Amino acid sequence: VGLKNVYGVPGLPGIGGAADVLDGRVAAAAIKSRVAARVADLLAGGSPAPLLATILVGNDPASETYVAAKHRACEEVGLESASHVFPADVPSGEVEACIDSLNRDAAVSGILLQLPLPDHLDARGLIELIDPRKDVDGLTAINAGRLAHGSAALVPCTPKGIVALLDHYDVELRGRRAVVVGRSDLVGKPVATLLTQRDATVTLCHSRTRAFQEECRRAEVLVVAAGRPGLVDERHVGWGAVVVDVGIHRGADGLVGDVDAGAVSRRAKAISPVPGGVGPMTIASLLENTMLAAA
Ligand code: NAD
Question: Which of 84, 93, 112, 145 is most buried, by CB atoms within 10 Å?
Fold first, then answer.
């Protein structure tokens, strides 16, 4: 709201007030209604609704919550979904057999293996068993390679959602200094790739980065995915920066992110909240990827 005009002026100093909110619920609702319209078209044409199959191992409460939210979101937009749940001590062979049968099942459009997995399972090995055409998390080597080449159809959901959130609020990326904190395969690396493809000048910071505060403070767009609550505060943020907080942590007072939002919002032009920022965008991107996988 007004972000385009204000942020379109490079180096505009903040005014010491509250930052604008990059509301992921609003942006996700727009994506969901587009997906719902496409599902309705498919059904009207006599085709079945695309189906997302999830695989959940163990009973990590956060993972259970995420998987339940993914099924609810499918239902909201008219996608089918099916869950495959295994106990924490499941032998690897059973999960492998499940992936194999979902790969072969023509009714299944997308397969999502919820991470993290218990230690006795080889997450990388299991991910590679997923048919890349059904890999709606975009984590197989084939899809990661295609992303690096700029030809990916199935892009990891959180990075895709982050860029969609910035686009929804018309945040200019071309030529901007973007700093990404975190270099995981799930978030940091792919979001740095996507921002580079959108012509941002990208710096990737991680746990070994020297002068971390200074690197962050140079950012016009700062994406923080470090998995450390409150790691980034006002000392890391330049006036007028746009800040995307990817972290999710369950604190005593509810969910918090990697960014000290109260302190940062006095300097930043805009910031994504936790909850209600990147989380809903991740789910909306998963729905989009399930549609794409079915096409
Ligand atoms: P990860 O632990 O795999 O990676 C964290 C990265 O941060 C590492 O590359 C590490 O080098 C870097 N890092 C750690 N400490 C640092 C420090 N002090 N300074 C600079 N860099 C540091 O985590 P991940 O899977 O990328 O997830 C990051 C966060 O995002 C977590 O809180 C996770 O829960 C959250 N997350 C949210 C969503 C969502 O949908 N909102 C999705 C995925 C992950």
Answer: 112
